[in-house]
Amino acid sequence: MRLLKFAPPAYLTKYAAWLTGIYLAFGHGIVSAEQVPARYTPPTDISVDGHLFDSLFILVTWMILGLFVAMTAILIYSMIAFRQKPGKRAVYEKGDSKKDAVKSVAFAIAIFLGVDGPLLGFSHRDVIDNFWNFPNTKEIDNDKDVLRVEVLAQQWAWNFRYAGKDGKFNTADDIVTLNDFRVPVGRKVLLQLTSKDVIHSMFLPNCRIKRDANPGEITRMWFQTKNDAVGDYQIACAQMCGYAHYLMQGSFKVLSEQQWTDWYGESARISENWATAQNEFEGKHAELKARNNYSWGWEWKSQPPQ
Amino acid sequence: MDDHIHPEPTSFISKYIFSHDHKVIAKQFIFLGLFGLLFGGVMAMIIRWTIAYPGEPFPVLGKLLFSDTNGLLSNDRYAMFFTMHGTIMIFFAITPILIGGFGNFTIPLMIGARDMAFPTLNMLSFWAYFVSVLFLAGSFFVPGGASAGGWVAYPPLASTQFQAGWGHTFWLFAIYFVGASSTMGAINYITTVIRLRAPGMGWFDMPLTIWGLWLTAVLNALFLPVLTGGAILMILDRVAGTHFYTAASLGQKGGDPILWQHLFWIFGHPEVYILILPAWGIVSDLLSFFSRKPAFGYRVTACAMIAITILSALVYGHHMFTTGMSPMLSESFQILTMIISIPAAIFFENWLHTIWHGQIRLATPMLFSLGLVFVFGLGGLSGLYLGSIATDLYLHDTYFVVGHFHLTMAAAVLFGSFAAIYFWFPKMFGRMMNDTLGKIHFWLSVVPLTAVFVGMLIVGYAGHHRRTPSLQAYEYLKPLQQMNVWITVAALSLGAAQVLFIINFFMSLFAGPKAPNNPWGVGTLEWMLPSPPKYYNFEKIPNIYYGPHEYGNPSVKDRDWVGQWEDPKNPGSGGPNAH
């Protein structure tokens, strides 16, 4: 009720009006209408774990929205209601008693337990049970349960290597592709990543995960697509990797079981295409040509460092 | 101590150029910092323009700067621009304004000292900093252009193989000298606060500004040398062919590129607090000064600052969740990061409690202080998403991170700097700044600023990753173009609003009304002195009887503040030099 006794300061309303006016006047002229409809949320979720990120994000947002609204309300209310009045004095309140100290620390701990607590709990659960709960491929060599893929990042493209029919990497029947990452729908996919040159980061926005590809070591990442995820998506490089970083995108296709069998059967032709594509790609960038002779592929690390 | 007053220097050079006077050195830092802010700000405008309007040259400047590319910012220059924007804003705008500038200006004045403990070291600190500026400015003009690997300069991208020119080596020398300068300054600040407080001023009688600056100095002394050392190793990699950061897979003898990330972020996370602690301290004081009410829970606030200083050294791994670091380590860093919420919540609680039932004067410094609370609230809360691994795996290296750290490090620190400039300008230059222009400057800044960085949080959440001059390569980014245009419009408005500040600053500097000794009615020591204070500040070092936030004390009848220097038998009577 106290609020009603005081009008907001005149200049505040005046500037607010001005600002609105300026934005209305210039905003329309500068912001051209786009053909593509705008989107403000993450791209389609296609992995079985992606919803964990989505729901945790929303949960945190709701929790902190309360804090943020309360803080803003107190700020604005104070600016209006507690403005200086001639001859009046503020309350002489230092808040330096033990009781005040205990109260404020207790309040802060309550916020920690109430907001950070659930966040920590869910994050721990999601990481241990899902995002970093890597499938065990120690005894697997046929890719039927878990598809294994080796990834070599380079300036500014992605190379992928599948084991082929013999189930062994770095052999003649490997399937190698450039910027063309295909996985069968619904199967677990385990990636081992490294980089040929600088640090890259393989970002699958549709799966809500990313992992750095570092030169000189092998890192890993895994995901599993949902059963209805068949379609075309994109891989992004999230780590600054040179002036053409923004062009480093790769195609990411989720195939139905039938499409997958067909494609996988054509291994020889695909790998030939890789050599051509690689030559063509590196021909575009003079500085890449010098580093062209680089054979890659490694025996699958059944126990990577982590 | 009282007998040891040096004569005032008389020549122009010893007075204004190679000065030992902390007030002059403070102004030198502030002018260089404001120049850096302008420079980094214009770069930000050009960066934003490039994203929003592909193929259109930046008005006026585009044709002048990039005549060889039809006024467009080419991709390699785009990389140089965001690298140098980050470097300039952090090391050559915020650091000199808040730490070099206001650190130098306020520490001796607010603790009742005649100068810093080591005036010559202080001068050396500024000139080492100046050498650093020369290196950074020079790096734009060497063959191959400026450093272009991002301000974090991750190797191998920062190695000679991928950045062959001298630009990045110059950048490293600039970092080396800025590190040396900050370390010298830090030693000086730490010693001055410990040794030169006026008689009667205990640790908990210091203004919170001094607490913030002192803790910043402690962090600077501990962690800047790590960066400086890391930079030396990288210089050796680049000029002497060593292999500290090269990877074995490049057909060379291998070091470890990830080593740099550890060294960089051991420094880099404390750096965030190095930049924000002075702003927190200043705002904690100003909220009390302009609410005419004691700072609520002063000791708890100071202790929360100490807690955050310690914690800041233990959380750096949250910058590296996606590198493949051990999950146990990642989870430890995650928990330590979250614990920062506790002292941070205490700040907000005490700030809001300070203004509650105050008698608030909405002068420009107060507006900027309240603005800091608002934008830092946004920034701090958005940090929760990034401190937790499960959400960071998606948000890492997206615009969400950019929005978050700009709200905390850029927006909040910028508002802290503006609050400090508007507040201490009368004491520094002896003239008042225009309050109306200041208020307009605030409102025209806070609205677009919030829009810019909240907009970045939104596009980041929608999947827009960082350091991309164009969204066109990605189908899933195309729907974010419109939002990016809005962000750019807001950024340009924010930039335009700063013209008001520049006008106000220079008009007031030369033609502002003369400032009285104590225009704000504040009880900290600098306000007992004439504006501007004389050489050597205090003719007689005052005795301290009161804390820094004595407002509305009922035992004082005719005014609502008490100076720290005033006689407790007769408070409110003025004491020496009071107006």
Concise summary:
The complex is a heterodimer of chains A (306) and B (579). Chain A has 306 residues and is an alpha+beta fold.
Set out the fold topology.
The complex is a heterodimer of chains A (306) and B (579).
Chain A: H1 10-30, H2 50-81, H3 98-131, E1 146-154, E2 157-162, E3 175-178, E4 180-184, E5 188-195, E6 200-204, E7 209-213, E8 219-224, E9 231-237, E10 250-255, H4 257-265, H5 267-284, H6 286-289
Parallel strand pairs in A: 1-5, 4-10
Antiparallel strand pairs in A: 1-2, 2-3, 5-8, 6-7, 6-9, 9-10
Helix pairs in contact in A: 2-3
Chain B: H1 12-17, H2 22-52, H3 61-65, H4 75-111, H5 119-139, H6 167-195, H7 208-239, H8 257-291, H9 298-312, H10 327-339, H11 341-355, H12 364-387, H13 389-395, H14 399-429, H15 435-461, H16 481-511
Give structural notes:
Chain A has helices at residues 10-30, 50-81, 98-131, 257-265, 267-284, 286-289; strands at residues 146-154, 157-162, 175-178, 180-184, 188-195, 200-204, 209-213, 219-224, 231-237, 250-255. Chain A is α+β, with helices and mostly antiparallel strands and 306 residues long. Chain A has two domains: 2-25 and 46-83 and 97-131, no CATH class; 146-284, Cupredoxins -  blue copper proteins (Immunoglobulin-like, Sandwich). Chain A has a five-stranded mixed β-sheet. In chain A, helix 2 (50-81) runs antiparallel to helix 3. In chain A, 37% of the residues are buried. The model of chain A is unreliable at 1-6 (pLDDT under 50). By secondary structure, chain B is mainly alpha-helical. In chain B, helix 2 runs antiparallel to helix 16 (481-511). Chain B is built from 16 helices and no strands. Chain B has helices at residues 12-17, 22-52, 61-65, 75-111, 119-139, 167-195, 208-239, 257-291, 298-312, 327-339, 341-355, 364-387, 389-395, 399-429, 435-461, 481-511. Chain B is globular and about 75 Å long. Helices cover 62% and strands 0% of the residues of chain B. Chain B folds into three domains: 11-289 and 298-315 and 344-349, Up-down Bundle (Cytochrome C Oxidase, Chain A); 360-513, no CATH class; 518-579, no CATH class. The chains are: A alpha+beta (306), B mainly alpha (579). Chains A and B meet through helix 1, helix 2, helix 3, strand 7 and strand 9 of A and helix 4, helix 8, helix 9, helix 10 and helix 11 of B.
